[in-house]
Design goal:
This protein has eight helices and four strands. The model has no long low-confidence stretch (mean pLDDT 93). The chain has one domain: NADH Oxidase (3-Layer(aba) Sandwich). 30% of the residues are buried. It is globular, with a radius of gyration of 17 Å. α2 runs antiparallel to α5. By secondary structure, it is of the alpha+beta class. 35% of the residues lie in helices and 15% in strands.
């Protein structure tokens, strides 16, 4: 798998990837898991509102909650995420806590928190695969305590590894080259 950046970046950023195959026999330590969400807690957000919330389940310690999160994913994601030892849902508060006005950057802020979480995971030898394929209506029904929070994403967390249980076409996705758009396509206007 090629992993080349155009310019020098921190090795941790380049090492980050989103595998489909997780080592289902290797559990995630509770202390490591807490540190991932501590990293998310320290992410930046508009007006420091911190609109992100997570529902997290470690299959080892709460298989019932883990199964509920798994059932909240679209079928295509359930087929491989069922082997991840930890599943999480990312939700946002669509309004600023102090003013009640719409928070147009809430999803951006959740993305920043999840990115911090992912980099912390990479530093600890863990992998995170973020998913947009969720079932928001199922999440709202399954987790009524989430109230007005908006379901946005899901995360599979664990140790990347070979998994003979995966369908071959899904397992092959981990063998593809990691391709990023060139900077010239990302920077619309730039004085670099």
């Amino acid at each position: 798998m090629k992993n080349l950046s155009e310019h020098s970046i921190q090795p941790l950023l380049q090492a980050r990837w989103s595998p489909y195959a997780f080592d289902s026999g290797k559990t995630v330590d509770a202390e490591d898991l807490s540190s991932l969400f501590e990293a998310a807690r320290w992410a930046m957000s508009a007006y420091n509102d911190q609109p992100w919330r997570y529902i997290v389940a470690n299959r080892k310690t709460d298989s019932v909650l883990w199964e509920k999160i798994l059932a909240s994913l679209v079928e295509g994601n359930r087929s491989w995420a069922q082997y991840a030892p930890v599943l999480a849902l990312g939700l946002v508060s669509p309004e600023f806590e102090k003013t009640g006005k719409p928070n147009a950057t809430a999803m951006h802020d959740l993305g920043a928190a999840s990115a911090f979480l992912t980099i912390e995971a990479t530093a600890r030898g863990l992998a995170v695969h973020q998913m947009s394929g969720i079932l928001p209506d199922v999440i709202r029904t399954t987790f009524p305590a989430a109230g007005s929070l908006q379901p946005v994403t899901a995360l599979a967390i664990g140790y990347a590894g070979a998994n003979g249980e995966l369908d071959e076409d899904i397992a092959m996705r981990d063998k593809r080259d990691r391709i990023r758009k060139p900077l010239s396509e990302i920077l619309i206007h730039s004085s670099l």
